[in-house]
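Lecture notes, unit on protein representations.

Consider one protein chain, 588 amino acids long.
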Amino acid sequence: MIDPVTALAFSVYENKGVYALLLGSGVSRAAYVPTGWEVTLDLIKRVAALEGVTNQPDWAKWYADKYGIEANYSTLLDQLASTPDERRSILHSYIEPTEEEIAEGRKVPTRAHHAIARLVRAGFVRVIITTNFDRLMENALREAGIEPTVIQSDDDLKGAVPLIHSRCYLVKVHGDYLDTRIRNTDQELSAYSPPMDALLDRIIDEHGVIISGWSGDWDAALRGAITRAPNRRYPLFFAARGKPSQIAADLVQQRAGRIITIENADSFFCDLEGKLSAQAELQRENPLSIGLMVASAKKYLGRPEFRIQLDELIGNVASRLAKALKEKEFDPSGGWSPQRYAQTVARYEALSEPLARMLGVLGRWGSGSEFAQTVEYIARFSQAEPVGGLTALIYLRTYPAVLLFYAYGIGMLKARRYGDLFKLFATVVSREREPHPLVKQLLLGSWEGGGTELWQTLEGLERRKTPLSDHLHDVLPGWCTDFIFVGAEFTSLFEEFELLASLAHLTLAISQEELQAALSKTRGRDFAWSPMGRAGWDGQTRRQVFESWNVPETNAAILKAGFANKSADYYKLAIDSLGRLAENMGWR
C-alpha cells in the first residue's frame, strides 16, 4: 500500500492551494505550550495546594473524588473565572514565554510551524484554521517573510482583505490569548457567530482539509462546521497520534476522510514538506546547478576581465531554454483542459527559472553594459513562430519572456536603476510586423496571454481579479532570493515594478492633452486605461509606493529616467489616473 503521507503529498502537489489546515493544541505541544488537559491538571494542583493538598498520584481522580464531577477544562476554568477577561489572565502565563523560556527554546515556533510557513511561502497552503490562542503560527509565518491576514473576531472579518486576495488567511476560531473575547468554556465553544460560521462554511466547502493536533472532542461548533459542509470536492485527512477518539472517527467517516497515524506534528509536517519539495524538484532543473550558475554569474559580473565568460554562461543558458521550448510537449494542438494549461504553465516556469534568476542578478548588480544583450534575449523569447492549435496555448508560448521581463526589471528596481528600467519598458520590438514597446507586449493585460479568464483556471486563482499578477507574485519570490534577502520586501518591490510599468505604459501610449481629457470626463470612464496588477486591490502597498515616489530625490530620478515624459505635470495626471483606475476596478 502507498504510504498515506505520500498519497497526501501527491494530492497537495497536484492541487496547489486547495488544502486548508486545521491545527489544534497538539501542534504547539512541542513548544511546551500546554494542551487544555495539561492546563486542567495544573489548575487542579493549584486549587489543591490552596486547600493544603499535595503529592497526589492522580490529580484528575482526586478532583473527581473531592467534587463529585469529572475533571473538565471548560468546567474548571468557568468556576475559577467568571468572565472572558479573567480567563484570559489565567491562560496568559501558560502561553507567553519568559526570557528564560525563550533562551531554552520554549514557547517559540516549532519545526511544524516553520514547515507549515514554508508550505505557505511555496503556495501549497493558503488557509489555516486553528483553535490555538498562541501566536506561534503567526511568528513562524512572519519569519518566512509572510504577513498573514489574521481573523480572530467578527471585527477582523469586517476589515480584512478578501480571502481570495490573501497570501495566507489565518483563522483563530477561539480567539487570541491577548484578546478578552477568547472562547474557552463549553458554552462558548458550542456555537460561533453567523459571520464566523459563514467563513468556515466557505472554507470547508471549497477546500480539502488536513487536520493535525486537534482531537475533535471538545469543539462542538467546529465539528458542526465540518459536518454540515454540502460538498466533498476534496478529501479530509486526519493526522492522529495513535487511535483517534470515537467522535473524531465518526467525523472522518462522515466526511469520507482518511486517518493518518503520525508520531507527532513536527515529523508529520516536515515529512509532508519534504515529499512536496521532492516532487517540485522533479519538475525543475537541479537546484544545485542553478545555484552554481547564479553564483558564477555574480562572480563574473564583478570582474570586468570575466566579461566573455559571463556572456558565454548566459548565452548557453538562453540557448538551452530556446531548444527546450521547441520540444513536442509545447505543441499547442490537441484538446483543452485546465489541467493541461496548468501543467504547461508549470513547465514554462521550470525551464525559465535558471535564465530568469541570472537576469535578475544582472538587473541588480549590472552596470548597464549588460543591458543590450539582456534585452535581446527578452525580445527573442517574446517572439514565436506562427503555428496552429489552441489559442490559449499559442499565446502561452511567450510566457518565458514575461518571466524574464519581470525578473530583470525587479532586479533593476532593487538597484534603483530607473533610467535602464524605463529603457527596458520602452524598447521597441517588432511583433507581426508592427513595432511595440516591450511594456505593451509583456505587461499583464497587454500581453496576449494575459487574459483573466485563462489564469483564473489555475487552482486558487478562480476568483481573483488579477490572477496573472497574483500568480507571478507567488512564483517569483524564490527566484529573487539571489538579490532580495529580506522576504517581506518582495511584495513592495513587485507591486512598485508593476506600477512603474503601468506609468511607462501611459507615458508611451497617450499624450498629456489626451490624459487631461480622459480625467476631465464627467460621464463614463474618467481615467486612461493601462495594465494594473495586485496594486489595484492592495491599496495599502499602492499608497506606500506613491508616497515613496513623492520623496523629492526619488521623484526627480523617476522623471529624469523618462517616465511621464519627464514632466511633473504629466506625472501628477498619470498618478491621478492610476488611482482612479484602481478605484474603478470593482473589487467587491
